Amino acid sequence: MKMLSKRQVTERVLYSPQHIARLEAAGKFPLRVKLGGNRVGWVESEVQDWLQQRIDARDQHSASLV
């Protein structure tokens, strides 16, 4: 299992750390894992699944327009 740092997550999803925290609080983004006193990470596969869901929703929307 690979963990992603905050920087890596923000680079992948193109959201600010503050927006990611808001999405987490709303249950709309994978939750961070506390790794130590001042360190958190996200499970890479969970972030990838979240991104894939957005791509799938886009594709379904595009298909319904045709």
Biggest sheet features:
3 strands, antiparallel
User: What is the approximate shape?
Assistant: elongated
Using only C-alpha atoms, the radius of gyration works out to 14 Å
How much strand content do the residues show? 15-25%
Structure description:
The chain has 66 residues and is of the alpha+beta class. Helices cover 59% and strands 17% of the residues. The protein has 3 helices and 3 strands; from the N terminus they run βααββα. It has helices spanning 6-13, 17-25, 44-65, and strands spanning 3-4, 33-36, 39-43. A 3-stranded antiparallel β-sheet has the order 1-3-2. A hairpin with a 2-residue loop joins β2 (33-36) and β3. The model has no long low-confidence stretch (mean pLDDT 95).
In short:
By secondary structure, this protein is of the alpha+beta class. The chain has helices at 6-13, 17-25, 44-65; strands at residues 3-4, 33-36, 39-43.
Please give the structural blueprint:
Layout: E1 3-4, H1 6-13, H2 17-25, E2 33-36, E3 39-43, H3 44-65
Antiparallel strand pairs: 1-3, 2-3
Which key terms come to mind for this protein?
single chain; 66 residues; alpha+beta; three-stranded antiparallel β-sheet
